[in-house]
Automatic annotation (TrEMBL):
PANTHER family: CENTROSOMAL PROTEIN OF 19 KDA (PTHR31539:SF1), CENTROSOMAL PROTEIN OF 19K CEP19 (PTHR31539). Belongs to the CEP19 family. GO terms for biological process: microtubule anchoring at centrosome; vesicle targeting, trans-Golgi to periciliary membrane compartment. One of its GO terms (cellular component) is centriole. The keyword Nuclease does not apply. Keywords: Cell projection, Cilium, Cilium biogenesis/degradation, Cytoplasm, Cytoskeleton. The keyword DNA-binding does not apply. It comes from the Eukaryota. This is Centrosomal protein of 19 kDa. It is found in: Cytoplasm, Cytoskeleton, Cilium basal body; Cytoplasm, Cytoskeleton, Microtubule organizing center, Centrosome, Centriole; Cytoplasm, Cytoskeleton, Spindle. Signal peptide: none annotated. The lineage of its organism: Eukaryota, Metazoa, Spiralia, Lophotrochozoa, Platyhelminthes.
Amino acid sequence: MLVKYKLGYRTKVHVIRLREFPLNISVLEVYEKLIKENRHKELLGQIPKIQLIRLLSILKDLINGQSLEECLRINAELECISPNEDLNKADDETLERKKLVMEETFERNRVRPTDPDFEYDIAVDFPQQVETSGWDSDFSDF
């Protein structure tokens, strides 16, 4: 794996060797293992987690024999969040990737107090449409 970055006016390339990429463990475990290595900790700590996980996932799929187009399609599906999707049924790796996408979207849309269009106290009127339910309308049990 190559990490290319700029340091001042110079462009540097750092080679990270992934010896015998483990196919029997999840991408999240490979990510944690890479981050914990003292040799690459500082450099990889500056790269967004979602970006590294995406790269490792594509690499793992390519090693398993899938085409690049298939790998990219699978990653695009994992990073697409549908409001109708039941995340309770997702596996740990899928859930973690969905959480990272949601966190990235939240941070991108968040309005901070230092932003020029920040308003402190916004009053919002919600419609007073009250729904009744059968379970809370009968007071004869008391």
